[in-house]
Amino acid sequence: MLRVHPNTLRYRLRKLEEVAPVDLTSPRVRLALRLQLMATAEGPRPPVTGQL
Q1: Average pLDDT by consecutive 10-residue portion of the chain (52 residues)?
Q2: Which of 12, 25, 37, 52 is the most exposed place for a label (fewest CB within 10 A)?
Q3: Whole-model pTM?
Q4: Exposed e or buried b for every residue in 15-24, given b needs 16+ CB within 10 A?
């Protein structure tokens, strides 16, 4: 779960599309980005539960 306001997330995604040649409407591209982010993360993070 992300800890940012939905409008903040939308804004950041629009900015990402402006500065990087990334098609976020493509499921394959989104999967590739997610896998890359997971591979570069600093180890596993525990899931956050019980918070909205």
Answers
A1: 86 90 90 88 68 60
A2: 52
A3: 0.55
A4: eeeeeeeeee
